[in-house]
Amino acid sequence: MLLIAIASISLIVGGIGIMNVMLVSVTERTREIGVRVAVGATEEAIQLQFLGESVMLSLVGGAAGVLGGIVGSYLVGQTLKWEMQMSVEAVVVAALFSVAVGVFFGYYPAQKASHLDPIEALRYE
């Protein structure tokens, strides 16, 4: 139960970090979004772009976490002379959780980007 609680808190904190990065990205690229909408990009295309970016961001973080876990397990196993086994299922579950966190916390920034008024977005400095 303690491990689940710690992992849940870590996922929430990481997700909030992803959401903040994506909100800053939307703010910095307001003019670009306005141009895309003005030339005919749909709301779904804008949402897909930002959801894709948040998923990639979370996958990179997840890959770094998996790599850190593998290296840490190997070092502890070598130091204490323990036999270590890596589970492919655990890596797959970690990747799926990374994608889920990216989609869940990237949805609001993607929604915000897709609903920008193109006229206001083009005026944005």
Can you describe what's shown?
The protein has about 120 residues and is an all-alpha fold. The protein has one domain (about 15-125). About 85% of the residues lie in helices and about 0% in strands. The protein contains 5 helices and no strands. The protein has helices at about 1-30, 30-40, 45-80, 90-115, 120-125. Helix 1 packs parallel to helix 4. The relative contact order is 0.20. The model has no long low-confidence stretch (mean pLDDT about 90).
Q: Care to count the β-strands?
A: 0
Can you count the helices?
A: 5
The structural class is: mainly alpha
Spans with pLDDT under 50 lasting ≥5 residues? none
- The H-and-E topology, N to C, reads as HHHHH
Span from first to last CA? 49 Å
User: How many discrete domains?
Assistant: 1
Tell me, briefly, the overall form.
elongated
Binned strand content: under 5%
Kindly provide the radius of gyration, computed on alpha-carbon positions and rounded to a whole number of angstroms: 19 Å
Q: Average pLDDT across residues?
A: 91
Largest sheet: none
Helix content: over 70%
